[in-house]
## 1
Amino acid sequence: QTVVTQEPSLTVSPGGTVTLTCASSTGAVTSDHYPNWIQQKPGQAPMALIYSTSNKHSWTPARFSGSLLGGKAALTLSGVQPEDEAEYYCLLYHGDAQVFGGGTKLTVL
Amino acid sequence: EVQLVESGGGLVKPGGSLRLSCAVSGFTFSNAWMNWVRQAPGKGLEWVGRVKRKIDGGTTDYAAPVKGRFTISRDDSKNSLYLQMNSLQTEDTAVYYCTSGSYEGYWGQGTLVTVSS
């Protein structure tokens, strides 16, 4: 059973930069895992931010960017805003299955 | 405006069945691979399964915990996605979300399924 691992929690100051990562128990994350990043605020439905490693949806703020970093998928927020406080989930494709990470709770403080 | 509206959730006893629906509008449903994702109370997101578009075979894949109990189907003429859930267990209690494929990135608001005696 594939396990996808994210930092449980991170804290960042407003205006700062933070990078969230996503690792797979099967080995290095590559573009073939089509990494996705999804944001969920308390009491709300999830919202997709990034697909296929680094592609943004039309609604994704420019301060969000996706990449591969040291064998992991990464989500970088530059110029963090208070409204970015949320849970962030990565999603990896493993063949015909998809696996979510456990989520990173991002606190803006 | 894109809308994915789930319905059919509710309270069901262990061992029971339930059928969820997702009505889609605002994008070309027949071109999209579609997924069901669930979230147990206070927990993270869990992929349930996916159905490909007809042109790609219309085949389905499921997560291990639901394989053999859940069935995903689609009706492109009605722009609708379905999730038939049988042999429900208490651990299936969750909000169930209908989502499009990664390229489109659309999510519904979810419907709550509670499995309890």
Note: Chain B has a mean pLDDT of 97.
## 2
Amino acid sequence: QVQLVQSGAEVKRPGASVKISCKASGYSFSSYFLHWVRQAPGQGLEWLGVINPGGGATNYAQKFQGRVAMTRDTATRTVYMELTSLRSDDTAVYYCAREAKSCTDTRCYPTHYMDVWGIGTTVTVSS
Amino acid sequence: SYELTQPPSVSVSPGQTASITCSGDKLGNKYACWYQQKPGQSPVLVIYQDNNRPSGIPERFSGSNSGNTATLTIRGTQAVDEADYYCQAWDSSTVVFGGGTKLTVL
């Protein structure tokens, strides 16, 4: 079955960086965009950006430009999200989520909604 | 930047109909989707492209989107539907989430 398995919880000091992984299985890794979404304690969902595992192209939320980097390793079917210059308000659960595709007989189109989510990785930033 | 606005909370009695709204400028010209999130769990897609249900989502969940408002409707609400609900749209190459609505079934 389709699965996104994320790396374990992290505790970081302010100013440090964190790199979280998301390993995909059960589908064609290169064919589906993967998004990163976070949720601070007691708060709503916040989008960080998206990566195309096929070619590696990325699109980041303006708020995180310069501080976030999304990469992929096609050999291990894994995407990574690195967030730098961590602050206490970066404390959150970070989710990877697959973007669904809509396909006709001849081609597929992006849908911009997420049909499969990982279980989340808790990142705690504290001195 | 584009914004989606949801009421913070909605209450409904068991068996009744719950409606959760999501407002945004000309939202009806975009596709809206909805996620359900229960405490300690990942979000689950319940409605996509305004009014479509993924497989496994009960028929009591439906959606609509027109003008500036998308609406998630749950008919015959059950206790198991108590959760946070988030709307989401795509604007200017950006994913936008609403602030979320806590649905209480009492």
Note: The mean pLDDT of chain A is 96.
## 3
Amino acid sequence: NAGVTQTPKFQVLKTGQSMTLQCAQDMNHNSMYWYRQDPGMGLRLIYYSASEGTTDKGEVPNGYNVSRLNKREFSLRLESAAPSQTSVYFCASSGLQGTSFYEQYFGPGTRLTVT
Amino acid sequence: KQEVTQIPAALSVPEGENLVLNCSFTDSAIYNLQWFRQDPGKGLTSLLLIQSSQREQTSGRLNASLDKSSGRSTLYIAASQPGDSATYLCASNYNTDKLIFGTGTRLQVFP
């Protein structure tokens, strides 16, 4: 049981390049999330998906797109990377487990640098 | 606006001390509150989740309490150890899938 996995772990992009961050969970959770974490800003929600086939914007969606490929996988795409998108990106998932409503489980993160 | 605040931002204590980390939230209509631990360069690990109907949750040396009326939660760590050194984050939930995070308390426990 791997939990939440993310690839890649590290990435360096040049301004204007595109890339897709991959996330998968094996806990049969309905909901999945993408966050970014910046020093002094805490974690901010980029996009989330409450169920397969649905996605919604979070607090900071500009410059990103997402795809909920199936129940397990949720990808985040940067179409034209900008230095302001240098950050650590976390994927998370949640579902009902016993009486623990909406407890979120996080992946190890992707450290992205845009030069 | 729903906000979560954690004070202090950083804390350094000697091994063996009992300590309390604080978390405040602006909207008392909270559904649950979750405490996480984050080690440097790593992801978040869920420590405890307290539902709004509960007053506290315990796991080993950790005890988290929730007081909705005052908008506060505390994480109590008993007999701290150097291995407890990490950043501790709290996050509130308002009956949706979304969490609102504080900016964390960076804890260092020295031998």
Note: The interface with chain B takes residues 4, 31, 33, 40-45, 48, 50, 58, 90, 92, 94, 99-109, 111 of chain A (CB under 8 Å).
## 4
Amino acid sequence: KQEVTQIPAALSVPEGENLVLNCSFTDSAIYNLQWFRQDPGKGLTSLLLIQSSQREQTSGRLNASLDKSSGRSTLYIAASQPGDSATYLCAATFPMDSSYKLIFGSGTRLLVRP
Amino acid sequence: NAGVMQNPRHLVRRRGQEARLRCSPMKGHSHVYWYRQLPEEGLKFMVYLQKENIIDESGMPKERFSAEFPKEGPSILRIQQVVRGDSAAYFCASSPLPGPPEQYFGPGTRLTVT
């Protein structure tokens, strides 16, 4: 069964700190992995998409890496700001699944304290 | 190019009533996914549709739930005889093709069953 897990479930850091969010998946034959941000009561904002042939993607202060052999992805946030406070979700698609549906982790709830 | 549109954004139904949730994909997208997010949980896949076809409904509850994506008009997720446990946020995502492209998410419909 293909599963995606995120640790920790919640994280609180002071403003300015660099931080890493973790995502693990059970099937190394991943097709792609997507990181999303979700604000309370809101929809999903796509942050980064990493294809299986890629090792990392960067956007501004965000950097996402993908290590298929270990079944892990990390989202690195540099110089965190209070506006980064949100829930971060990772989701993967797998080639054995012809519908390419996204399998989501349960999220990491991030609080950046001023 | 307008994004994925969902309406209504908020829907309140009494137990036993029917709920109809609509999703208009991005222009040029013919693939639609529905996901459900129960309170304090991650998103779970429900159904994947192409125009006039249900491709994968492995995540749909066996009873009371149905989905369609007609040749013309939005995709509809229909829940008959709603119960309190159906209270959740329902998200729709669209894609121009299955697989590699990102899935683009709508803002969601928050269903409350009283």
Note: The mean pLDDT of chain B is 92.
